Amino acid sequence: MSDFYQNGLFTNFHNLTERSTEDLEQELISFSKRRKMGLILPSLFSELEGPALNHIVDELSQATYLEEIVIGLDRADREQFLYAQEFFSRLPQRYRILWNDGPRLRAIDEKLQKEGLSPTEAGKGRNVWYCMGYTLASDRTDCIALHDCDIVTYDRGMLARLIYPVANPTFQYVFCKGYYSRLANQKLNGRVCRLLVGPLLRALQMVYGHSEYLEYLNNFRYPLSGEFAMRTRVLNSIKIPSDWGLEIGVLSEIYRNYSPKRSCQVEIADNYDHKHQPLANEDGTGGLKRMSCDIIQSLLRKLATMGVSITSDSFRILKATYYRNALDIIEIYHHDAEFNGLKFDQHSEEMAVELFTQCILDAGQAFIDRPNDQPFIPGWNRVESAFPNIFQEIYDAVEDDHLGNI
């Protein structure tokens, strides 16, 4: 049972009555007569070999209100793509797999690259961007949800709750973000959100001054959640990062394009768990270190586009301000964990904060050193302006792959 907090910038949907999934789905089936619904699933091939996605597909098979499921498949050769087609064939809904490493989509990507209109690096952002393009090309849905493929605590009620606010024809929302608790093995998870994003948003306001944008982000219970839903038309104009800054990038674009009254967030689960990243890989890169640097750079770029003067000197102040805020929040989480009878490793929490503190300097220096970096993938409306037939080309490429013409 959750609280009923409604004092933020936008509407919060709570799990007040533990309404059944079946009851929600009956309404969604009714809504689908007026608003067709779809789902985007960005996936690595390796996730098809794990237990989480197999269970997710079983659950989705019962979500009969979905008109279409679009699966972005990364890091897959021909045999693995054929395996993926068999893997997802149990879905009763119309589904299509974007074989991002296949020759047809690669050819389209190369054409866009020549005009500077495609993602500059591989990653979840690139995967999601092409899935958005196909969703627009298919033109079968009025609203679309997205969630990750590594959720080990998944049930289809998560999707029903996530898409309900944008699917209900009597509601005005164009965007909905999911939130939840992060617990596993009797301890708190979600370190990047708890220990980086929360205290960093406060530190940014202390260093650079009050910002309605930062306040907007701070009103999300879980700004880094990979679960969100939106009206399909929103996909035309949003510009997203291709790296780990995807979630912050999407929120930033919704803030830029729509009133906060058109946004909402919904509690989609009592608890949520997925695969965990190490602080850093053995070579000192990747893991939460890479993710954190990408997120920080995404925030800095957005602030710069809003006219905030970001200098090398300010990073040292930001680092110190963040570090103090983060240590304070560790103490608060320690008390909350103890109150709930959870384990709490203060040493590992402070190790994470020390890593994130260094990431602020690293990300800030990268921001200063590469001022000409293209921060966002262009919106699909710009791509269509340069290539008027792009949606038909993407649609045809995916259909040919689906029919086995490979």
CATH topology: Spore Coat Polysaccharide Biosynthesis Protein SpsA, Chain A
Shape by Cα distribution: globular
Mean pLDDT: 92
The low-confidence parts are none
Distance between the termini: 51 Å
CATH homologous superfamily label: Spore Coat Polysaccharide Biosynthesis Protein SpsA, Chain A
Helical element count? 14
Number of domains: 1
Strand order of the largest sheet: 1-10-6-9-5-2-3-4
Radius of gyration: 21 Å
The H-and-E topology, N to C, reads as EHEHEHEHHEHEEEHHEHEHHHHH
- Could you estimate the helical fraction of the residues in percent? 40-55%
Number of strands: 10
CATH class membership: Alpha Beta
Structural class: alpha/beta
Query: What kind of sheet is the major sheet?
Result: 8 strands, mixed
CATH architecture: Alpha-Beta Complex
Strand content: 5-15%
Which terms summarize this structure?
single chain; 406 residues; alpha/beta; Spore Coat Polysaccharide Biosynthesis Protein SpsA, Chain A; eight-stranded mixed beta sheet; two-stranded antiparallel ribbon; 14 helices; globular; Nucleotide-diphossugar_trans; Glycosyl transferase; transferase activity; transferase
